[in-house]
Amino acid sequence: MNLILLGPPGAGKGTQAQFLVEERDMIQLSTGDMLREAKSSGTEMGLKVAAIMDAGGLVTDEIVIGLIKEKLQGDKKGGFIFDGFPRTLPQADALADLLAEQGETLDVVIEMQVDDETLVKRIVNRAAEAVAAGKEARADDNEESVRFRLMEYYKKTAPLIGYYWAKGNLTSIDGLGEIAEVKASIAGVMDR
């Protein structure tokens, strides 16, 4: 099964993806992880990524699609979880083309719905808990950064909700429950 976890920053996509990796032997394709892995790989693609990232630039959609293509050609295990990709309508079209080219399908897109104010509080609290535990909080786990990230999400990524609804792939779940409740909702969607 191949799926996209869709939702704003801090909705819990990464946490839920880890459960799917551990319990369903799926492969998490997190754009950030793939870029960091490519950067340190020493491959031709990795050297391109390193040069762009070291210069502070944004990696092109073509490079990200190239990295995803490499992953799709490996062991498919229990399927793929797209986490943090696609983020825009052109990326969604490029992913659809790539999946078709690879003979793969997108089985479901799970939108993790959250209340914005609750989400902001959740992320700010997460940072405070990290600091209280003697750990370093993420630099962007503050109210101003979270609100900016949410604005970017609504401008660029939220249109994917309508895109995937129109394609018949979208299922929405409550992303604000306890972690186990959200996990159960995702399992329910996948096991239909």
Describe it for me?
57% of the residues lie in helices and 12% in strands. It is α/β, with parallel strands linked by helices. Strands 2-3-1-4-5 form a 5-stranded parallel sheet, sandwiched between helices. α6 (116-132) packs across α7. The protein is globular. The N and C termini lie close together (12 Å). The model has no long low-confidence stretch (mean pLDDT 90).
Net shape: globular
What pattern of helices and strands is seen along the backbone? Answer: EHEHHHEHEHHHEH
Helical amount among residues, as a percent range? 55-70%
* Topology, number of strands: 5
Largest sheet: 5 strands, parallel
Using only C-alpha atoms, the radius of gyration works out to 17 Å
Distance between the termini: 12 Å
- Average pLDDT, all residues: 90
Number of helical elements? 9
Q: Percent of residues in beta strands?
A: 5-15%
SS class: alpha/beta
- In the predicted model, the low-confidence regions spanning at least 5 consecutive residues are none
| Physical arrangement of strands within the biggest beta sheet | 2-3-1-4-5
Per-chain topology:
Blueprint: E1 3-6, H1 13-24, E2 27-30, H2 31-39, H3 44-54, H4 61-72, E3 80-83, H5 89-101, E4 108-113, H6 116-132, H7 143-157, H8 159-166, E5 170-174, H9 179-190
Parallel strand pairs: 1-3, 1-4, 2-3, 4-5
Summary, kept brief:
This protein has helices at residues 13-24, 31-39, 44-54, 61-72, 89-101, 116-132, 143-157, 159-166, 179-190, and strands at 3-6, 27-30, 80-83, 108-113, 170-174. With 192 residues, the chain is an alpha/beta fold. The radius of gyration is 17 Å and the shape is globular.
